[in-house]
Amino acid sequence: MAVEKTVTITDETGVHARPATVLVNKAGSYAADMNLEYNGKSINLKSIMGVMSLGIPQGAQIKIVANGSDEQEALDAIVEVIKSEGLGE
Question: What residue stretches are annotated with the HPr domain (predicted)?
Answer without folding.
Answer: 2-89
